[in-house]
Specification:
Elements: H1 17-36, E1 44-45, H2 49-56, H3 67-78, E2 82-83, H4 100-111, H5 123-140, E3 147-151, H6 154-169, E4 177-182, H7 187-195, E5 203-206, H8 216-228, E6 232-239, H9 251-261, E7 264-269, H10 279-284, E8 293-296, E9 309-313, H11 316-323, H12 361-371, H13 373-396, E10 401-407, E11 410-414, H14 419-432, E12 438-442, E13 445-451, H15 459-470
Helix pairs in contact: 1-3, 4-12, 5-12, 6-7, 6-11, 8-9, 13-15, 14-15
The structure holds pyridoxal-5'-phosphate.
Residues 94, 153-155, 186, 188, 239, 241, 243, 268, 270-271, 297, 309 line the site of pyridoxal-5'-phosphate.
């Protein structure tokens, strides 16, 4: 078949600098318009699969389409459907509200032709990622010889922590290993164990205590019982900010048990970890620095765009020896890196499951350097303070009762009218587009839950959402935000 373009001609996929600028400005304009108008947009806009199929029908990938028309299609007919996690009244699940420099960081990362898997592919960038990881070490109180890497999110970080612990503690005989977590642990812990092939009977889910925390004595008892059965307890996952209630497990006491028993202590601080930047957060997270590994999610309470997760490992060499596998086709990337985490050229592909990866440190570096850490600290403090005020407001409410919190930005509450009534209130708020909260179960009971960690959220936003949830759900009160 004859080639369509002749050799030597300009690539058919190349654009002139003028055209690139023009398209960039168009895309940036649409993004800025959306963010500036968020207040007036619904926090959630529902749709059906069929309606989306209709909206997207007729697209012919063989035919070129004007960039402006495609932006219209995306911004008008595709992207508005679903949640806006950066909306000031999106208080559901774990919100993510990226800063503008962080958003631009992702654009620069994609447009800079760097290859963040190896040192030769991205020496400048790799040094930047080391710099960012160095900040995290300092914030966490981790030692100099700790090491980490940026990953897609908390789930992958916990998976990589389990790989590292398995390689370090179980070596060639992994199948007698036992993993421990509390009933409040995030599902990513069990998923990581399953991915790695641990059968369900090697995963102990220990009933959380009355404060929804992993009990050190329950852990010690379970470890002893498994030892008696001839098994090898090796990994305990604690939470520093559980997803349902924000509870922080007793990290110091758990570290004592784990040290005594030779069990790897992993702390899932995916959303709560960055509270160490604040004084109250540091007090709550006491003992975090004793963990063998830590999951952090900068795309949660460090205000970064998805994806930005992070694994930190206390003894960095253990991370490298768990993941490092060489290939002849990579021989040109072997400079002086001897696997030392800090004093040699680092191939980030040696620290995790991905070789080719995106340059996630860029957005973190750019946003923190631009604003200065103080502004991030202030916004985390604001989240903590807003949650406290929300809890007081709920306690004072005649229509609502506080169930848990405030704990690291999370407040759980109910109306007293039962699950169906509260679920209807949550749904009505969702359908109204005014805001969004999610629900969970505390001690088996349905509760409504506020998660306040969006820097765009002000007290009036929280109050408006609480006021909506105070009103009994009744027929005729639902106004649907464009659910078609
Ligand atoms: C405590 C905790 N751990 C882990 C995760 C999973 O993180 P990711 O969604 O980034 O994989 C979450 C997500 O909300 C979480 O809250």
């Amino acid at each position: 078949m004859e080639a369509r373009s002749s050799f030597g001609a300009m690539s058919e996929l190349e654009l002139t600098p003028e055209r690139m600028r023009e398209m960039g400005y168009q895309a940036v304009d649409r993004l800025v318009e959306r963010i500036a108008g968020l207040e007036d947009l619904p926090a959630w806009q529902g749709t059906t699969r069929e309606a989306m199929r209709r909206r997207l029908a007729g697209a012919d990938p063989e035919r070129p389409t004007a960039f402006g028309a495609l932006l219209d299609e995306l911004f008008d007919s595709v992207l508005p459907y679903g949640t806006s996690t950066d909306h000031p009244r999106f208080l559901a699940f774990i919100p993510s509200c990226p800063t503008w420099p962080g958003i631009l960081g992702d654009l620069i990362a994609a447009g800079s032709g760097i290859y963040p898997g190896t040192w030769i592919g991205s020496s400048g960038y790799a040094a930047l990622e080391l710099e960012v990881l160095g900040w995290f070490k300092e914030w966490l109180g981790y030692p100099e010889d700790s090491a980490g890497l940026l990953m897609s999110g908390g789930s992958m970080a916990t998976l990589a922590a389990l790989v590292t612990a398995r390689a370090t503690r179980l070596g060639a005989e992994p199948w007698s290993g036992v993993i421990y977590a509390s009933s409040e642990a995030h599902s990513s812990v069990v998923r990581a164990a399953r991915i790695l092939g641990f059968p369900d009977d090697r995963i102990r889910i220990l009933e959380a205590d009355r404060g929804f925390r992993l009990s050190p004595s329950a852990l010690a008892e379970a470890v002893a019982a498994d030892r008696e059965r001839g098994l090898r307890p090796f990994f305990a996952a604690a939470a520093a900010g559980s997803t349902s209630t924000g509870a922080v497990d007793p990290l110091d006491e758990l570290a004592d048990v784990c040290e005594r028993e030779g069990v790897w202590l992993h702390v899932d601080a995916a959303y709560g970890g960055f509270a160490v930047l604040t004084e109250p957060g540091r007090a709550l997270l006491r003992g975090l620095d004793r963990a063998d590994s830590i999951t952090l999610d900068p795309h949660k309470w460090l205000f970064q765009p998805f994806e930005a997760g992070c694994l930190m490992v206390r003894r960095g060499r253990e991370l490298v020896s768990a993941f490092r596998v060489s290939g002849t086709y990579l021989q040109d990337t072997e400079l002086s890196d001897a696997g030392a985490p800090d004093d040699a050229e680092v191939n980030f592909g040696d620290r995790g499951p991905q070789l080719t990866r995106s340059a996630r440190a860029l957005k973190i570096w750019l946003s923190i350097r631009h604003f200065g850490l103080g502004r991030f600290r202030a916004e985390i403090e604001k989240g903590l303070a807003l949650a406290e005020r929300a809890a007081e407001r709920i306690e004072a409410s005649e229509a609502l009762e506080l169930v848990t919190g405030p704990l690291l930005g999370v407040v759980c509450f109910r109306s007293g009218g039962g699950e169906a009534e509260d679920a209807a209130r949550v749904r009505r708020l969702l359908d109204s587009g005014i805001g969004m909260v999610s629900s969970t179960r505390v001690g088996g009971e349905y509760v409504m839950r506020l998660c306040i960690m969006n820097h765009r959220t002000r007290w009036e936003d929280v109050e408006r959402v609480i006021e909506e949830l105070e009103r009994p759900a009744g027929p005729g009160t639902i106004t649907v935000a464009g659910a078609s």
